[in-house]
Amino acid sequence: MDKQSRTRINSSNYYNYTSNAYDYNYDDRQEFIEKEREERRAEAILKRAAKIHRMKLFVSVVVVFAGSLVTMSSYATVAKQRVINEKEADSLNSLKNANDTLQGQISDSADLAYIEKEAKGKLGMREPQSYQIVYIDVPKQSYTVQYNDNKKMQNDDFNLKKFAHIFKESVLNILK
Fold first, then answer.
1. Mind listing the pLDDT tens digit for each residue in 54-63?
2. Is pLDDT at 167 greater than 90 in this prediction?
3. Alpha-carbon dihedral angle through residues 63, 64, 66, 67, given to the nearest 10 degrees
């Protein structure tokens, strides 16, 4: 309300043309001021509530936007890593194919008939003469034979002795 209308409400609705002043009712004026203060407080509370609502809305929009950015960046990172993994898988497959090819060449070149043919043809090698051959006698009790005998169990049946032996060896292997 503007000031002029407040004056009109508090004073009488008509103009005083005399020199006598009307008795001013201060109680009515105080009630009017209190009402106006309450209206201002209510308006301020409404404005504050509207401001808080706008801030909440703004914050929620920012949070949703930030969340979507994080989600998009994580999807982009996953997609980028997937592309890198596919390239590495292709590289691995090509290396495996190259290894298979080389392994085939090695197995072809490890053929004894082929080696003999190459040695005689390209390198000019010959079979050793009888005087060039030296025979070596290997004793029956060699280290490898003894080692293999210790590992071999006498009977094939599963029994407590065999189980204890397997358990003892596994424990020793773990402790090493």
1. 999 999 999 9
2. no
3. 110
Q: How far apart are CA 12 and CA 24, in angstroms?
A: 10
CA distance 148 to 87: 48
Tens digit of each residue's pLDDT (9 = 90 or more) over 27-83:
677 888 889 999 999 999 999 999 999 999 999 999 999 999 999 999 999 999 999
What is residue 19's DSSP assignment?
S
CB 17, CB 7: distance < 8 Å: no
DSSP character string of 139-165: PSS-HHHHHHHHHS-S--S--HHHHHH
Of 32-41, 81-90, 110-119, where does mean pLDDT reach its minimum? 110-119
pTM (predicted TM-score)? 0.38
**How many CA atoms, within 13 angstroms, populate the side-chain half-sphere of residue 64?**
6
* Residue 6 burial (CB count, 10 A): 14
- The runs of H, that is alpha helices, within the chain are 3-10, 26-109, 112-121, 143-151, 160-175
CB 34 within 8 A of CB 11: no
The number of residues in the chain equals 176
d(CA 112, CA 40): 108
Question: DSSP code of 20?
Answer: P
